[in-house]
Amino acid sequence: MAFTSEEVLAGLAELVTDETGISADEVALEKSFTDDLDIDSISMMTIVVNAEEKFGVTIPDDEVKNLKTVGDAVTFITSNQA
Amino acid sequence: MTPTLIQPTGVAHTRIYSYGAARGEIAVPNDDLVGPIDSSDEWIRQRTGIITRMRAVAETDAIDLATDAAREAIAKSGVDASAIDVVIVATVSNPKQTPSVAAIVADRVGSNPAAAFDLNAACAGFAYGVAQADALIRAGASSYALVIGTEKLSDVVDPTDRSISFLLGDGAGAVVIGPSDTPGIGPTVWGSDGSKADAVGMNATLTQFRDGQAPWPTLRQEGPTVFRWAVWEMVKVARQALEAAGVEASDLAAFVPHQANMRIIDEFAKQLKLPDTVVIGRDIETTGNTSAASIPLATHRLLQEHPELSGGLALQIGFGAGLVFGAQVVVLP
């Protein structure tokens, strides 16, 4: 079953909160992972691996650096679902 | 008629008799390194868990560190140095390719004319060495083995590099391995993935340096790529090592992963679902990442701080440049 963009955003916010303690309300589409949410590369990779499992997608290492904002991640996940 | 060859077999079981350790003489705090990387003590602590790393003075080399660690391990083992007939040294940072570190150390510690050789398996080097020592003794090719991981990584760091240099330290850890009445070294789960050779390793060759095409070669890594592999792929290897040894995570007394980064150690332990009773090696906090030396250094420290671990099971896993990995469960001496 495919996840909607809203479901991916909500799920991603949960993963960010679990990893960093940042409030889920902060995790909005336009927010930059590094500049706005202050997420370092190791936490980002943990979130990516957990997102792969949660949404059933594969996010290659080379792709991770293109995911600058929460919106980038939501778009990638929704468009790469099996 | 061709005569039949004699082909020996060895003992049924082996174990680690003792550990020895040597660290660089200088404790280098984060504040000493932050200038060239435009960083802070807090930045390094948050990303690595490192407070200080031990580095050796100019006069001390990887051979000296290995010799000191080996002498302690031999003294504690109860085995006479002259009875050791193979010396295996895991290292990637000795600046002279030949002769081997192992041959020199064997002579210095009184084990001349033991068979002696170096092996290059980066941060998995110690686990590779233990695998070989165990196999050689059980095959009848050796009676007692000295296995050492030694590094002087401060010779291959770039002070301006933000990927790995600030993690690295200098040290050596050694063990003596010999026959045992009961199983003391579980099956080794090991392997490599050379398709990821660029993920971590030296950034140039010595000939490029000689020809003026590159500065002095130093270590580099693709941190996030290595992090993902080191946790989620290596957890599978760790589970295989437990299964191969016929034990559960709850049977462990200690978990000693390669001391790459505290964040890797923490996430690894979380993914392995280790019970609180398992003591985790966290030597990186004050020693730094010493590649092939990190596992025996961390274990040596655990045994000093928690003597009750003696006789318990430890899962050790090394992983690093190659990429290569090796894991086994051992009985702590």
3D structure, described in words:
The complex is a heterodimer of chains A (82) and B (333). Chain A has a single domain, classed as Non-ribosomal Peptide Synthetase Peptidyl Carrier Protein, Chain A, CATH 1.10.1200. In chain A, 55% of the residues lie in helices and 0% in strands. Chain A contains four helices and no strands. Chain A has helices spanning 5-20, 41-55, 61-64, 70-79. In chain A, helix 1 packs across helix 2 and helix 1 crosses helix 4 (70-79). The N and C termini of chain A lie close together (9 Å). By secondary structure, chain B is α/β, with parallel strands linked by helices. In chain B, the strands form four sheets. A five-stranded mixed sheet of chain B has the order 1-7-6-4-5, with helices on both faces. In chain B, strands 8-14-13-11-12 form a five-stranded mixed sheet, with helices on both faces. A two-stranded antiparallel ribbon of chain B has the order 2-3. In chain B, a hairpin with a 3-residue loop joins strand 13 and strand 14. The chains are: A mainly alpha (82), B alpha/beta (333). The interface between A and B is small, with 10 and 13 residues.
Strand residues, percent of chain A = under 5%
User: CATH homologous superfamily of the largest domain in chain B, by name?
Assistant: Thiolase/Chalcone synthase
How many domains make up the coordinates of chain A? 1
Greatest interface and its participating residue counts: A-B, 10 and 13 residues
Number of helices of chain A: 4
Structural class based on helices, strands and sheet pairing of chain B: alpha/beta
* Number of DSSP E strands of chain A: 0
The top level CATH class name of the largest domain in chain B: Alpha Beta
Q: Which secondary-structure class do the elements of chain A indicate?
A: mainly alpha
**Gap between N and C termini of chain B, in Å?**
49 Å
The CATH topology of the largest domain in chain B is what? Peroxisomal Thiolase, Chain A, domain 1
Estimate percent helicity of chain A.
Answer: 40-55%
Q: What is the beta-strand fraction of chain B? A: 15-25%
Order of secondary-structure elements of chain B: EEHEHEHEHEEEEHEHEHEHHEE
- Briefly note the CATH topology name of chain A: Non-ribosomal Peptide Synthetase Peptidyl Carrier Protein, Chain A
